Amino acid sequence: MGEWLLVLAGGAIGAPARYLIGVTAGRRLPAPYHWGTFLANMAASLLLGFLVEAGTEGALGADGQALLSVGFCGALSTWSTFSHELLAMTDARHTTRAAGYLLATVALGLALSFAGGAVARAWTGSGPGL
Question: Which of 51, 59, 95, 124 has the fewest CB atoms within 10 Å, counting from its CB?
Answer without folding.
Answer: 95
